[in-house]
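In the design runs reported in the main text, the only information available to the sequence generator was the tokenized backbone. The following block is the verbatim input for one such run; it is reproduced so that readers can re-run the procedure and compare outputs position by position.
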């Protein structure tokens, strides 16, 4: 079995990945707080860990991987959204979860095996908090329960900070009921419209960090393989998850491997509402940027490097995908079975992925594979099958879902196909007669209608346009 190597934030090294149980490889990724559409940055961890999920399933078997990604559906930002809009919290979170799954699906992301909502795991959180109090790692004060950071000697190990550094560097909330300013909330009181549950410490709601510890424990066990998220979560969120889980289960290791993706920027700048460069995945999809283009751009940068989203990258990705889509149409006559895809995945692509998800190398290898597929003239040749199986394995499942629709529209428009054929015949005739002016004029008209032509031994061939707009055929008349 090929070795997978992953960079572990915990050790700051690339390590050979050895699952605790190869028959049940377990991964937890921190998911979104659901009060609004996912912005483009939120999509980065989704795509990164989707690629890892696909790789793990490929190596260990589809049924041997459990991937959990939570929805944070109790949070003060959600309460604020409910208060300002007058809507019910449940309606907001349900709607946002639906949007999230739809938008991430458009990027080719598989749904995780478990998508726990925090509000469905309150009893498990309360039980973990009680356990932490009993073990001397947490204390109740004024309706709150706080985790005592000084009770865990390894606090700060993941992010490489000491408690003193943290106090100096962080904007910690100083509160009279905290023994140490770094102590963080496990439970807090709720009042009025705030969501809340009965607990041994009164009516209240959980803090953010305890949610992931309790859900990971319930769904994956006290020790599991991989924990992921954006590197903005490393401190305090992941540091606090580790403290809670290791103190609740001193004999278990919690996550073996910690993986963090770097942040996404836009045209070299941090994405922010004030800079006017903040947009959601849905904004892009609605502007006509296909999901696979977003996926392509994401995979072109390694997950541990900051990723710069630029219009130029979108243009380049669209060009590649256009060509691949046309190649698929021309050279692949059937859809590939999952089993076949597994067997045909290109070894170099696989090796690059297995080397800490080297997706930039994967993308350049894909271009080579596309070239090989282009050169093999037979339909369904080995090179063609290998290329498309590899693409599908990487989550480029349907290069363009509307393609067949467009082809149908084109073919159903009675005059379109004969019209293009007539133009092509006239072009070949003009060429044979060395009437280059006429040939150029026809070529320009075809180009204006997005009809791509190529010269082959048997004459001029044309391809169905990637984005077919029947009105453009008017220029051919
Ligand atoms: P949040 O809803 O803010 O907790 O974020 C959900 C996920 O998106 C987390 O894994 C974050 O680390 C990640 N994330 C947020 N902003 C960005 C960004 N600009 N680039 C990459 N990942 C991000
Ligand atoms: Zn988390």
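Verbatim output:
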């Amino acid at each position: 079995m090929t070795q997978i190597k992953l960079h572990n934030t915990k050790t700051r090294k690339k390590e050979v990945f050895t699952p605790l149980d190869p028959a049940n490889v377990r991964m937890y990724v921190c998911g979104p707080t659901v009060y609004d559409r996912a912005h483009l940055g939120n999509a980065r961890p989704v795509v990164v860990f989707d690629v890892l999920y696909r790789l793990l399933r490929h190596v260990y078997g589809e049924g041997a991987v459990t991937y959990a990604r939570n929805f944070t559906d109790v949070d003060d930002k959600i309460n604020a959204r409910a208060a300002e809009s007058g809507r019910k919290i449940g309606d907001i979170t349900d709607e946002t979860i639906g949007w999230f799954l739809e938008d991430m699906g458009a990027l080719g992301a598989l749904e995780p095996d478990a998508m726990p909502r925090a509000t469905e795991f309150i009893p498990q959180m309360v039980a973990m908090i009680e356990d932490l109090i009993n073990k001397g790692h947490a204390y109740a004060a004024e309706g709150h329960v706080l985790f005592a950071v000084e009770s865990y000697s390894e606090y700060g190990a993941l992010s490489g900070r000491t408690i003193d550094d943290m106090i100096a560097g962080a904007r910690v909330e100083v509160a009279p009921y905290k023994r140490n300013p770094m102590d963080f909330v496990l439970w807090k009181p709720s009042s009025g419209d705030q969501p809340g549950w009965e607990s041994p410490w009164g009516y209240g709601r959980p803090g953010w960090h305890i949610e992931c510890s309790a859900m990971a424990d319930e769904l994956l066990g006290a020790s599991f393989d991989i924990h992921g998220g954006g590197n903005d979560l490393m401190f305090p969120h992941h540091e606090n998850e580790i403290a809670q889980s290791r103190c609740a289960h001193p004999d278990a290791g919690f996550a073996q491997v910690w993986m963090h993706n770097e942040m996404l920027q836009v045209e070299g700048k941090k994405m922010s509402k004030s800079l006017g460069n903040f947009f959601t995945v849905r904004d892009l999809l609605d502007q006509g940027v296909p999901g696979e283009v977003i996926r392509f751009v994401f995979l072109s940068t390694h997950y541990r490097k900051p990723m710069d989203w630029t219009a130029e990258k979108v243009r380049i990705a669209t060009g590649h995908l256009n060509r691949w889509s046309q190649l698929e149409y021309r050279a692949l006559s059937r859809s590939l079975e999952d089993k076949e895809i597994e067997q045909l995945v290109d070894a170099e692509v696989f090796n690059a992925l297995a080397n800490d998800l080297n997706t930039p190398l994967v993308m350049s290898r894909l271009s080579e594979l596309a070239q090989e597929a282009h050169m093999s003239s037979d339909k369904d040749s080995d090179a063609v099958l290998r290329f498309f199986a590899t693409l599908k394995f990487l989550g480029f499942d349907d290069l363009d879902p509307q393609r067949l629709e467009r082809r149908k529209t084109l073919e159903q428009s009675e005059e379109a196909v004969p019209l293009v054929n007539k133009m092509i015949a006239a072009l070949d005739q003009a060429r044979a007669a060395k009437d280059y002016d006429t040939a150029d004029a026809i070529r320009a008209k075809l180009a204006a209608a997005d009809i791509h032509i190529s010269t082959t031994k048997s004459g001029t061939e044309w391809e169905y346009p990637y984005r077919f707009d029947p009105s453009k055929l008017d220029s051919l008349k």
